[in-house]
Give the backbone structure.
Amino acid sequence: MSANPVFVDRNAAIARGFAPVPSGDVILRAATESDSALCEALFIEHYQAPLLLAGWNAAQCRTHLQPQFVMREQQFHDRYPQADHTIIEVDEEGVGRLLVDRQPQVINIIDMILFPAWCGRAIGSHLLDELCREADKTGKALALHVACDNPAQSLYQRFGFEVKEDEGVYRYMRREPE
């Protein structure tokens, strides 16, 4: 996969056992500066759930999370300047983002996030399948960090990722090439 638009081959994915996305094709396209609001909305929607449960309102969540989003984006930019930053689209609607840093020996999945309404529709499975095929073809490992309470860990394990290090709040997971 690259920063150019990538179409997930739905028929091939279905043949490998993945459920189809309910409508349209999953497309990755290069992120632009105009996607900043979409990425911020993804971040806030993802991280506001515990705050809402604690009694915060949406405005309080946004006020608290927006500076964290800005700081995280700057950290990503500083640490992974060559990473491919793509927007995940279905029927031309931005539903998520994928940030991948390709190094000589490893492909690092820096951020893969979907709006909650799009979770559970096999989009993550389609994208992980593409990344696994790329990693296998190039002889590279795949690596990522995932929050300990993130249910996506089971998805990563189904794709052959193993926990290599428990870092408290996060786990470092890695998949060796086949």
Remarks:
- The first strand starts at residue 6 and ends at 7.
